[in-house]
């Protein structure tokens, strides 16, 4: 019986992470944990939100009993905003955070970040986007200058690799086999830099008169 193997998927998600005002002094510790967990930090900034900005950010929570306390807490001091990236970034970041209530997190997920750094249901130390669409909205809110382009996935990603990546990589590996250098990794890295098809090239040599 022929075994059906799933086709490889190339998909990198982005999510928003916030280090909330009461644990900003633990920024380095938290970032180290984020990097150890396989995330890349694409963007980072420290800022302080006004109560009005907090209200806009948490607009989906408007009308709930805790909303005034939430906006007051989030605007009480500087916070750190980060764009994190990795495969299934949204779900992995939520898993690393643990339950939103830090008291419950300490009981059920003692190794989660909210269990370690959080205090209670409100002061839970960190924020994470709930979904991919929420992450896009929140990233635009915290990083309005960032252009979020759609990341190719599935067939689009395979088409991109076949068209732009594989031909150059195959040529480089073929040259590597012929050359047989002592340090193949460094040699291949240098070869790829030199033969990058996207590297800008001069159409004609610049003469001394043109340069002057």
Automatic annotation (TrEMBL):
User: For this UniProt entry, what is the primary localization, expressed as one broad class?
Assistant: cytoplasm
Going by the UniProt record, its keywords in alphabetical order are: Cell projection, Cilium, Cytoplasm, Cytoskeleton, Developmental protein, Differentiation, Flagellum, Hydrolase, Kinase, Spermatogenesis, Transferase
Q: Which GO terms describe its biological process?
A: cilium movement; CTP biosynthetic process; GTP biosynthetic process; negative regulation of oxidative stress-induced intrinsic apoptotic signaling pathway; spermatid development; UTP biosynthetic process
Q: Name one Pfam family in it.
A: Dpy-30
Q: Sorted alphabetically, which Gene3D superfamilies does this protein's record hold?
A: cAMP-dependent protein kinase regulatory subunit, dimerization-anchoring domain (1.20.890.10), Nucleoside diphosphate kinase-like domain (3.30.70.141)
The residues covered by the Nucleoside diphosphate kinase-like domain are: 12-150
Xref: InterPro entries:
Dpy-30_motif, NDK-like_dom, NDK-like_dom_sf, NDK_H5, Nucleoside_diP_kinase
Tagged with keyword Transmembrane helix: no
* GO MF annotations, alphabetized: hydrolase activity; nucleoside diphosphate kinase activity
A GO CC annotation given for this chain = cilium
Whether Magnesium counts among this entry's keywords is no
Q: Where in the cell is it found?
A: Cytoplasm, Cytoskeleton, Flagellum axoneme
Q: Which SMART domains match?
A: NDK
Q: Which family does it belong to?
A: Belongs to the NDK family.
Describe its assembly.
Component of the axonemal radial spoke complex 1 (RS1), at least composed of spoke head proteins RSPH1, RSPH3, RSPH9 and the cilia-specific component RSPH4A or sperm-specific component RSPH6A, spoke stalk proteins RSPH14, DNAJB13, DYDC1, ROPN1L and NME5, and the anchor protein IQUB. Interacts with IQUB.
Give the protein's recorded name.
Nucleoside diphosphate kinase homolog 5
Q: Which species does this protein come from? A: Smutsornis africanus (Double-banded courser)
Q: Which gene encodes it?
A: Nme5
